[in-house]
């Protein structure tokens, strides 16, 4: 890890942590189904990865980038397969992961994670 953590990396880590918390909460509401347990596990992983970002873990950055890419792909797939999931819903579901991907691979972020 080189230098001070860029603000963008901190922002992405905070957003990922909050997302993980909400995923766990959602899982608790659906605890009696397999999806509830999957949500809880994914939420815990997301929080762990976000904490790794705070410490400058390049592995955490890679895992989160994969998660962001999957989020974007799922939003695009939903646009074509889910009734009522239109263009604006796709854009809304994709914008934060896309911004997160961009921020995680800026010049300052690359220097921090190297």
For this entry, give a set of tags:
5 helices, mainly alpha, 114 residues, 82% helix, single chain
Helix/strand layout:
Blueprint: H1 7-29, H2 34-55, H3 58-81, H4 87-104, H5 107-113
Helix pairs in contact: 1-2, 2-3, 3-4
Helix-strand pattern, N to C? Answer: HHHHH
Residue fraction in strands = under 5%
The biggest beta sheet is recorded as: none
> What's the helix count?
5
Q: Name the shape in a single word.
A: globular
Rounded Rg: 15 Å
Number of strands: 0
* Residue runs with pLDDT of under 50 for 5 or more positions: none
Helix fraction? over 70%
How far is the first residue's CA from the last residue's CA? 6 Å
Mean pLDDT: 88
Structural class: mainly alpha
How many domains? The number is: 1
Nutshell version of this structure?
Keywords: Membrane, Transmembrane, Transmembrane helix. It is built from 5 helices and no strands.
Describe the structure.
- With 114 residues, the protein is an all-alpha fold.
- The chain has one domain (7-113).
- Helices cover 82% and strands 0% of the residues.
- The protein is built from five helices and no strands.
- Helix 2 (34-55) crosses helix 3 (58-81).
- The chain crosses the membrane at residues 7-28, 34-54, 63-81, 87-106.
- Keywords: Membrane, Transmembrane, Transmembrane helix.
